[in-house]
Each structure stands twice: as C-alpha cells, then as structure tokens.
User: Fold this.
Amino acid sequence: RAGLLATPLRDRFGIPLRLEFYEPEELARIVMAAARKLTAPITEDGAIEIASRARGTPRIALRLLRRVRDFAEADGGTITQDSARSALKRLEIDSDGLDALDRRYLHALVKTYAGGPVGVETLAAALS
Assistant:
C-alpha cells in the first residue's frame, strides 16, 4: 500500500517500514483473549481453527470469532475445533479463509481474464 503515497512524501520518512501478517499462533492468542472478553468459552483448538482462516489479519480473526460464537451460542456449547469448522463451513469460509465472493473474484480472474491484468471496474462489472 506504500505505493499509494507519492514518492517525495514517502522519502520524507527516514525508515521505510512494512508490516507483516500475523502467524496463526499469534492470531490464536488474540482470539483467545477476545473470547474471554466476550465470555465465549473456547478451546485452544477452536481458536487455532479460527486463526488459520483469518488471512493473517486480527480484524478478520475477531470478525470470524464473533460469527462462530453466534453459532456456538445457538448450539449451546463451547467453541471447539469441530464447532468452529462447522460454523465456518456454514458461512462458506474455506480453509484458506476465502468466502464465496473471494472465490468468485478468483474464478473471474482465471476463467474470464486468463489470470492476466484486469482493472477493478472491469472485474466488478464481470461479477455483477
């Protein structure tokens, strides 16, 4: 995203920093802490399952936790690895953390545009 800034502005900052994505283990700790705040019972395996589908991003991990918690509350139980998998499957979130719309974008890129460059407006039109 640094490319969105003009080069002279970027050059004014002495140290170019890049943030890396979180590892699943780090995200699992974040999920466990958030589950405690939400008073949502969760196992370590349940937290790892959610974290592994969060694409390295805490915001996504916390959103997934809230959705999985909703399913767990409806089922009257703890968030376990199996209950998290079941909830995420019902939400159509695959093991890579991609949802139905993500898969549609990728399918359009590969099938319609042969994986080549395509503008965002053109891609959006192809999906509508």
Summary: The mean pLDDT is 93. The helical segments are 7-11, 24-37, 44-52, 58-75, 81-90, 100-112, 120-127. The two ends are 26 Å apart (CA to CA).
